[in-house]
Structures are given as C-alpha cells and as structure tokens.
Amino acid sequence: MTLLLSQEQVDLLVRNQHHDPFAVLGPHPVECDGQTQWHIRAYLPHAEAAWVVCPTLRQEFPMTPKQDPHLFECLLPMADLPNYQLRVKEGERERVFYDPYCFKTPKLTDFDLHLFGEGNHHRIYEKLGSHLTVMDGVSGVYFAVWAPNARNVSVIGDFNGWDGRLHQMRKGHTGIWELFIPELHEGTAYKYEIKNWEGHIYEKSDPFSFRQEVRPKTASIVTDLDRYTWGDQDWLEQRRHQDALTQPIAVYEVHLGSWLHRAFDTPTPDQTEPVAVSEWNPGARYLTYRELAHELIPYVKAMGFTHVELLPVADYPFDGSWGYQVVSYYAATSRYGSPQDFMYFVDQCHQNGIGVIVDWVPGHFPKDGHGLAFFDGTHLYEYSDPRKGEHKEWGTLVFDYGRPEVRNFLVANALFWFDKYHIDGIRVDAVASMIYLDYGRREGEWVTNQYGGREHIEAVDFLRQVNHVIFSYFPGILSIAEESTAWPMVSWPTYVGGLGFNLKWNMGWMHDTLDYFRMDPWFRQFHQNNITFGIWYAFSENFMLALSHDEVVHGKASLLSKMPGDEWQKFANMRALFAYMFTHPGKKTLFMGMEFGQWQEWNVWGDLEWHLLQYERHQTLKHYLTSLIHLYRQEPALYTQDFTLDGFEWIDCADNRHSVVSYIRYDKDRSNYLIVVCNFTPQPHAHYRIGVPEPGFYRELFNSDAREFGGSNMGNLGGKWTDEWGYHGRPCSLDLCLPPLGVMVFKLDRQKSQGVSGDA
Questions:
Q1: Which of 305, 353, 362, 381 is least enclosed, having the fewest CB within 10 Å?
Q2: What pLDDT is recorded for position 759?
C-alpha cells in the first residue's frame, strides 16, 4: 500500500518551495488492514537506489520512487517505529545516515516563541542559531533561523554539497524555521539558503552563529561555547559587589589586529592556522588571542591600566572598517583564533586584574550579501524606508528598533557577551547616530517622529531596554556611551528617565583640550576657556575623558605630532596633557601608541611603531605615563568623586596671562585632597603663589618636569611649607616654582605638619 501525495505537494518539495517538508518527508503512520504501519519518504536527488535500514531489527527495506524519480518511499510493516537509517547509493559511493525528517521534536517552546515575539527573550541565542544537540539518542545539530517572509529556507554546507534541496527546513507560525540534522558535529561550515516569493535565492550566514570562517569566506561554523573552563570566579564575584564608578578606571584602547604583528611563517600556538594581515603588510600575520594574552596583558598590567577596551571583536568582513561594520554579532572574529581562544584572553585579563570592555555597534550594519541586509528577501532587520533605514554617509543600514524581534536580537546580543565571554563592559558606538533621526542627513532625507520631532523614540527606548537588562543580570559592569551631543541624562538610570548608561565619553572636553594643546603656547592666553569651560558641565553626566582612535586617523595626525614646538616641547606638552587629563574629574581612556609617543597616524594595516622605544624620549614618555597611572590609582582623591562637585574645587582658573590653572581634588570624605597646578607655557614662573585650605608642609607628589621624565627638573625641592598669607580666598598659601609646560601635584603631609607652624 502507498500513500499518494497531491501533485502540488510533490512539486513544492521538488522545487524546494515547501514550508513544511515534514508533512511530506520522514515517517507517517498509516492504517493497513486495521494495523498501524509506517510510510517513509525521502527526497534524494542524487540517489540511484535507497533502503531503510533498521539496525536493531537487522533488516533493510528497499525504497522505490513513485511520484518523482528522486522521491523514494517504502512501507515498514510494523506498529512501533524503529530508530531507522537510510542507505543510499550515489554512483560509486554508498552512505548510511539518519533521516533528519524523523526527528520532529522542536527545541523552541511556545514560551520561547512568545518571549521572542514581544522582544523579551534575553537568551534567545541559546535557541536560535546552530546548537549541538542529542535527539532520541542521536547526536547532531539543531538549526533555527528567523525569516518570516521567506518562501522557504534550507541548511546548506559541505555536508550536503551546498544543495538546498537536501535539508529543507520547517516554518513555524512565528516565522522561525528549524531542522535537526543528525550526525553533524562541531566545526561544520554552513549557511542558510533563503528564497523569497519571487524565487530569488540568498545565501546567508547565520545571524546567531558563534563562529564565522575567516574572511573572505563567509560561512558560519557550528561551535560549542560551553566547553571552556573559566578561572575568573573571584574576579566576577568581586565585580558583582563593587561600585565601578568609585574605582580608578584607566582604559587602554586597542585594536587587536594592529597592536603587533608576527612574520607569517612564525609558528602560532596550538598550530592555529595563521591569518595574513593584508596585501598592505605582506609577510605579516595577526597575533592570536592566546599570543595577545601573553604579550598584551603583561604590557598593560605593567603600565597600570585597569581595563583594556577592544575595538569591535564581533566578526566583520572588511579589515578597513576596524570592526565597526559588523556582520556576525554573536561571533568573536576568527582572525585571531577560536571562541575558546578569546575566552582564554578574557580569562587571563581577569586573572591579572584587568577588566575587558568591548566596543558594541548596534547603530548600523553593512550591506554585504551574506549578512543581515534584506535577510529574507525583505527589509527584515532594517527599516524599509531609506530615510530611516540607511546611513548614506557610511553606506550602512539602520536596525528597525521598533520591531520586537530585531530589538530582541540586539538586547540579547549585549547580554551574550557578558554571559558567554565574561566581559566587563561595552562601549556603545555612535549613540548620536541612533537617537537623532536627522543624524548625517540633509533636509528632506529624513522623517520626523510621530510628534514632529527629530528624536528617534524607538532607538531611545531600545537603549533604555538594553541597559536595564544588562545591569539587571550583571551588576558592577560598565556601559559607556560614545554620544557627541547635549542629549540630557545619557548616563543617568532608566528609572529617572535617563538612557541607562553609567559612563559617557566627554567629547566636548576632548575637542576643547586638543584644540588648546595644539596651539602655540603664546596664543593659549587667549583661549583659557578651552580648559576651564568643561567644569561647568563636568558633573551633569558620568564622564569618561577619552583620547581615542578617532583622534589619530584620517589626516588628524598622531597625538605627539599635534603638539607645538620643538621636540622637547612636544614631549613636555604630551606630559602636561596626560597629567591634566589624569587629575581632571572623569575616568580615562587612551588609545594604543599614545603611551610612548607614536609619530605616525594609526594605520590599521600596520602595527605600532615599536622601534621608537629604542630612543630615550619615547622610553621616558612610557615610563612617565606608567608613573602617572600609578599615582592616579594610589590617590583616592583622583577617582572616588569624579561625578560630583564635592570632588573638585578651583583654586584659580582665571590666570590666562600666565596660562596657569590650579585646582583641588577631594576624596570621598574630603579629609584628603590633592593640589594640582598646571603651567601650560614654556615660561617657568618663580614665586608663583596659590591659596591652599590648610597650613603645613605640602609634599610635591608628582612633577611632570622631573628629570626622570625627560623634563628640565625645575620644582620645589620635594615640597613647600605654607605661608600665613591668605590668598585666593584661603587662609594660607604656597610660594611655588612652576616648571615650563609642567603639571605638579601636591599633598598635605599631615604627619610632618603636625605641631609645626606654617612659617617654621
């Protein structure tokens, strides 16, 4: 007996147009003479002959094509369906495999589908994508992809000759397609073949893949993220109970692909396949994550940085985008090794007391054919209206933040990096491009919100959601906004109407300060406001002072090259800039290469100018910054009150004639404080008087002009006693020698001062 299909059913299957191949293929119960038997079909377009094999019964049943030359079927004369396999003869080759269409148990529950549909499935990455799974005692890989507007979807890869007819997926009512393919294993390369209703075919990488092939290849790779053994439990527990904003935060921003390279023929750890940098750097390869762990971490630790910030590590196709045009949001880039290798890097950072911040890019994505763009033949992840859905300046697309499933994709992605990779923070790129509908657009190229304004309400709601979620799961982490406008309350909690970040890059401070320092010092007297104005708004947000990669590319020159004067003055200006930055309210970020005074702009194809460290001035600058960071970390007055006016007080900000500013930094209970005096001209000043809060001996804690730092060694012989001469509205004062282009830090030595009069 046979169970005939309609010709329409056969045609849909053969043409790869069926949204539910399980309705046709696999086992189906039939009644025969009052007995239940099993009718089995298999679509085998390359087969000459096929059999159903029942290993437990030690029987084979021949299959015959009935309604199509490649649609094989047979009847099993038994009531209980055995765990069967298919034996197929294809030319000279025979193979035996489990029938994927006999595994009908879905991995997604109704609750999963409900949460995803409303945008609140925080760990949807554990359900969508590819997952090593055991079903009915058979190991394999479960695939699930959201493509609601596709006509049909197939899994393709080396395992089926990239033939979309062989592993057609089943569509659920929520637009998620799924299929379990038995006997696939970790390391399998695959894509989704997606057809739209016009019959156009798109070969897409998996949006939820955990690993991608190394560019220029674009397939996803089946990966198990749960087999790495972590050793950072103490770090994570300490982080959970810690208020990060009261701790010192000094971030070393690094692009892993251009920090350092090796010769291509240099062996890699564990025989990892070397990855060439590019034709712009012939003969060079990238360091692996494990090599970076053994080289970058000791370097950062020795300098005293508290965190590393990695330019995006989510996989991207074009090296020249620096990682900011992400295609695979859940895959750590394979340029530097496997996901477990990146886990090792993060683990080693934590075991060495270093936090890891990752740049996260939810603001836009590229148009690459294998990526998210036009994913199921429609504008699925992006807005369909180009006035909202495209950044023409960047040639990228904008996520549809109003669509719950898209929002879920991004919210879960932020959580994913904390969950699976144990990172300590994200820096969200280009927030301004998200929250303004007219960002980078001319008149007539954008549409208003429903109230007629330029605010992107859906994006704002999304940012609040993602920050609320990640802080709910992982207290003690950092969420940093690169936001370049005056949008209010960016770093305020969501429950008071803020965007929910806990830090914001201070772009105004950065621009004003760099404009000031690149001036000839003679002109600085007319621009004192550049370095004092920032205090007017310094406590409106939780600010991070960042001298980032954006300031040393595209013809802007390296930081050292921006400085005016001869070589000595350039280095002195750098020292003054760093000291001003590290004594100013706000957390700190510096881009790689700045620490030793790179002369050239950052070049993503090369590595840093490490050869400069053979020269004394560059060695000394690195030593100077190391000493400055250690001072910063040792003095609570420099970091415990970064975000309140209680932690800062001007002594004098108005001496523009000498280009001198002086101020006080207080610790949390204001019992300890530091006096900072900055002379931003090459002219030293003798007998320069400043008022101080208390009488006593003020030890010269730090002097950027010290001989050990390459300076002229002018100073105050280790410290000064106060004079009983009220000044700057204070009861006593110090008579100081200010070195050229120098910043000095003083601290009251209470033990030495105790019982001694101010003019002793």
A1: 353
A2: 46
Is 429 among the residues known to form the active site?
A: yes
Q: Which one of 376, 405, 429, 705 is the catalytic residue? A: 429
Residues 6+ apart with CB under 8 A from 755: none
One-letter amino acid of 453: G
Residue 457 Cα to chain centre, angstroms: 24
Residue 37 clears pLDDT 80, i.e. is over it? yes
Among candidate residues 482, 541, 551, 595, the one labeled active-site is: 482
d(C-alpha 633, C-alpha 252), whole Å: 15
Residue 257 pLDDT > 90, yes or no?
Answer: yes
482 in active site: yes
| Separation between Cα atoms, residue 223 and residue 341, nearest integer Å | 13
Full-model pTM? 0.95
Tell me if 357 sits within 8 A of 251, measured CB to CB: yes
Give φ, ψ of 410 to 5 degrees.
-80, -45
The alpha carbon of 728 is separated from its chain's Cα centroid by a whole number of angstroms, namely 47
DSSP 601: P
148 class by beta-carbon count within 10 Å (0-12 exposed, 13-18 middle, 19+ buried): middle
Alpha-carbon radius of gyration of the chain = 32
- Within 10 angstroms of residue 489's Cβ, the number of other Cβ atoms is 16
Residue with tokens 């370097």, as numbered in its chain:
299
Q: Is the peptide bond before 521 cis (omega within 30 degrees of 0)?
A: no
- What confidence category does residue 304 fall into, taking pLDDT thresholds of 50, 70 and 90? very high
